[in-house]
Amino acid sequence: MGEVVARVAPKRPGRIQQRLIDASAEISLSPAEKITYQHTVLCQTGLPYRNPGADVRRWERQNGRAFLEIEAGRAMHPDEGRFVDLPLPFGPKARLILIHLNAEAIRTGQPVIEVEDSMTAFVKRLLRSDPNGREIRTFKDQLGALSASMIRLAVMDGERAFQVDTKVVTAFDLWFPKNANQRVLWPSTVRLSQDYFDSLGRHAVPLDERAVAALAHSAMGLDVYTWLAQRLHRVPDGKPQFIPWPALHGQFGHSYSRLRKFREVFKNTLRAVQTQYPDARIEADGRGLLLRNSPPPVSQRLQLVSRKPA
What is the pTM of this model? Predict the structure, then answer.
């Protein structure tokens, strides 16, 4: 009798992998239709990846001439009748909230942003999928942490320093009442602080919303994508810039004590990011990362038409 060969069906990609594949195909076929933004200081530094713990009340990062300091805040709890500590914002959800609010502020040219009347609708737009209860609670907690935190952004320019000390969101109801259907409600508008809004107008980095949505599961992925969007087009043409692994570890590896483990995670993350930024000219080897001049993920022409005229 002939040998029977078993056929094994190819493994179907998971939800995250499929999202990366679909977005990569869209990005390769058409320019960005929806543009979102991140502040240049947050493109070069970043929030914690994971919860740093209740005892950690301050977070500081520096990368070159960009400086970030976040101080966890306190807020009046209506049920307890006292001020309570809120944690530092962290993870991909906090980044997605900031990117979304930035985009709406840039698009309208106003610091007051109209939002959906429920947290569920807001999260659905960010994730491009129906959120579960855990995801909604996580977004709610991160929005509260962002609203209460004091954020200091600074950029060195020669011997001068430009600095903003502010809250990103002002006058916000942190506790979100529920209606009879148990939907988490919130005000119909969110107001960015004027200092942050003015700084964003000068230092906003355009991003392709499709790439942001595809990388929504990964805090490091969002940080690497926004960093490359801010960095690559500024690399001098014909003069590539080399960044050794220890320097990359200092910038992106704050959750990894071992350089070897960080390098493994970073390379995997970089491969995912490159699917969403196909024009990025990058080479990684055992010594580090080589960056070459590359077009930004959003063309200059689209950047101009996306902004509301002053």
Answer: 0.89
Q: Which residues contact 310 (CB under 8 A, 6 or more apart)?
A: 109
Side chain identity, residue 42: L
Distance CA 252, CA 218 (A): 13
Q: Classify residue 10: in a domain, yes or no.
A: no
Q: Among 237, 257, 239, 241, which residue's Cα sits nearest to residue 249?
A: 257
**CA–CA separation, 76 vs 78, rounded Å?**
6
pLDDT band for position 310 (cuts 50, 70, 90)? very low
Domain that holds residue 169: 15-304
Q: Is 3 part of any domain?
A: no
Determine how β-strand 160-166 pairs with β-strand 241-244: unpaired
> Measured between alpha carbons, how far is 86 from 172 in angstroms, rounded to an integer?
14
Residues 275, 49: Cα–Cα separation, whole Å: 22
Structural domain contains residue 310? no
Q: Which of 9-18, 41-50, 180-189 has the lowest mean pLDDT?
A: 180-189
User: CA dihedral in degrees (86, 89, 90, 93; nearest 10)?
Assistant: 110
How far does CA 23 lie from the centroid of its chain?
17
For 281, phi and psi rounded to 5 degrees? -100, 100
Number of folded domains in the chain?
1
Place of tokens 């995801």: 135
Return the ∠ at Cα 221 (arms to 49 and 223), rounded to 5°: 65
Decide which of 115 and 163 is more confident.
Answer: 163
pLDDT in tens, 82-128: 888 999 999 999 999 999 899 989 999 999 887 776 667 778 877 77
* Number of separate helices (H) and strands (E) present in the chain: 11, 14
Is the residue at 230 inside a domain?
A: yes
Instruction: Indicate the average pLDDT of the chain.
Output: 88
Residue 241, Cβ density class (10 Å: 0-12 exposed, 13-18 middle, ≥19 buried): middle
